[in-house]
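The instructor's notes for this session suggest beginning with a concrete chain rather than abstract definitions. Hand out the sequence below and ask the class to guess, before any prediction is shown, which regions might be ordered.
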Amino acid sequence: MKNTYQAMQVTRPGVLDMVDRPIPTPCTGEVLIEVEACGICGADISDIEGADPTLQPPRVPGHEVLGRIKALGAHTSSIWKIGQRVGVGRLGGHCNECAQCRQGNFQLCPNQHFVGATCDGGYAELMIARSSGLVSIPDELDSVEAAPLLCAGIATFNALKKCGANAGDTVAILGIGGLGHMALQYARRMGFRVIAVGRGQDIAGDALALGAHLYIDTNNEDAAATLNSLGGAQAIVSTVGHPDAVSAVMGGLAPQGRLILLGAHKSPLPVSSGQLVVGERSVCGSLTGTPYENERTLDFSVLTDVRPRIEVMPLEQANEAFQKLKSGEAKFRIVLTVAGEDVAQKNLP
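After discussion, reveal the predicted structure:
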């Protein structure tokens, strides 16, 4: 019987190496997952390039993990079974003991790992995960198409749910990339008038095909002015982190409109206090979500036929996939397959 598994680890910052590791045993409340697919997210860039070079063993990145339970640790909830298909997103499982967990704010638990950053992720054949972070996967979703929904999907779905807009309202999506292309699809199916805001005409056709009613090219027009000519946006969901790009669009918020931030940046966001006060506008951040919310995202995706646009690459090409994402050439998500060709060939967009 095989006693090792293969994993792509960050041997040194920015570089992934394929290694053999001993097969681990899940501890109390943990499961061992046999990985079938793992999406590559923009956050993986900082995880790979900023990994601690002194960490031993080196970190395995990846937090859009899809696979089947291979082994159960002690005292794992009875809802999880050997062979069951599950997913793991960015949040590695709440503790059920802290103040936030006791209030039901499981996504804000300070005692959970960030998968792929503070614990090993899914660029591997096997992965240990806390059972409190597991997501049940609908049969209607293939592994390669479900993987990006565990991060890009839930992040945009939850942001739109909390944006304050009602069906028929104007909602703008800033940034049409890995997150934005999911937000456009969800927003259209939620009944909003969807405005895509991007840079350049090369993405216009895709934005409209994904669900936008209108595309605004910030290279050629003032996005805030165009939004105001339409009556203003009840919500703007920003998937980009650059503060200047976000600030430039804020003027297009309607009175009592809400800016939802998904993209994070170290630099401060310039905000006019007068703009917020006079129009009773607001700005808020949106994290990913709980495992239950992740399952709601998957169910909605099945119900409304929302799927990520993906390119599939094998695990051993993780370095090439990472560089492609970093260069901006990915359109729109890349998924690494671990379980072979059968998984990779299913239902590609």
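Then share the key points. Residues 291-304 form the longest helix (14 residues). Confidence is low (pLDDT under 50) at residues 341-349.
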